[in-house]
Task: structure prediction
Amino acid sequence: MMEMPASLELASLFLLLIGIGLAFSDIRLSGWVVGWILLSGALLVQWFRSVLSYSIERGSADAEFYQIADDWMGLGFALLIVASMYMMREVLARHSLAEERVRVVSAVAQDAVVMMDHQGKIAFWNKAGQRIFGYKEEEARGRKLHELIIPERNRAEFERSFIGFRRTGEGPAIGKTLELAGLRKDGTEIVTEVSFSGVNLDSKWHAVCIFRDVTERKRAEQMIALEYAVARCLDVADSSTEALRAVLRAICQTLNWDCGRFLRVDEAAGVLRLVEYWSVPDATIQGFLSAAQGFTYGAGVGMSGKVWQSGQPLWIADITKDARALTAIFKAESGVRGAFVFPAKAQGKTIGVFAFNSREIREPDPQLLSAVRVIGSQVGGFLQRQRGDEAYTVVQ
Result:
């Protein structure tokens, strides 16, 4: 009986041992790469078997030698196939287990957990993402993150940052928590805190982003800051005129209203009269304010008269679609859409009203509605104290 040449036997065993060794080693190779190496080794062994089969058919190889070699290489082929399939199965299992763990953890998370693949497309989107941004998982997956939830003004910068990250896994935002504007499905803009991290999967960098909606918290902080700003305006003012003008400017600039007016109660005449205003430098808004000068409002007339009568704030998102705002100054050509009026009170009595307007449609803001009760009392108390020694100047 012929024995298989030592060189061929060693080559087969060496190839087999390399494949098995790679499968169970700590070498940092992708599981898919190792699996394909093992599979390639199996195909190489099969090629040797084909060469031997061809040789035996040509009569250039001994039949007994062929039988021994074929048996050994058949065993090697089988082992390499099993090892490659095992490796690929383990890779799939690890990916499935990792994904399942992420799903379980992210399903109960209150923050939106989003993973972007190396192309910037959304590969993972949890239930909190739907709650915060309004998109279901099937709507978000496969779409580019910056085109979905980032306001248009910030998209170019976000995309540039990601291009650098996907090459190196590094970037100025990695490992940090930043404040970032977000865009909901309905077009509403929110404020988010975002933490960024990178993970290398199959030699490609993926980004994991965790979004927290802090819109309500930031709005509450803004309202507190506004109350303090109004208090400072009143503390440093030398006159009622100066104080009212400073308060109107502070509210408009902080909350992005285009103009603000203060109308004083004229008890003798039984009307509200305009005594002070502030506006952005816009011709349309200034034209509206010019038209408003000289107008008076009786109790229950127009928004200002209704607030005077009820003592309660009134907000109208679009005055062109609400009959409560119908007065001579609110015409379609005025350019005014959003309106908000609240009372200034002293000892529980309305002594004037603040009226704010915007060229944009403005939906009611619950936190502002709550804050103006404090602001109205601050201003009302100040004006009551000033009334004894200062007369208001009526705008002609």
Notes: The chain has three domains: 6-105, 109-213, 218-386.
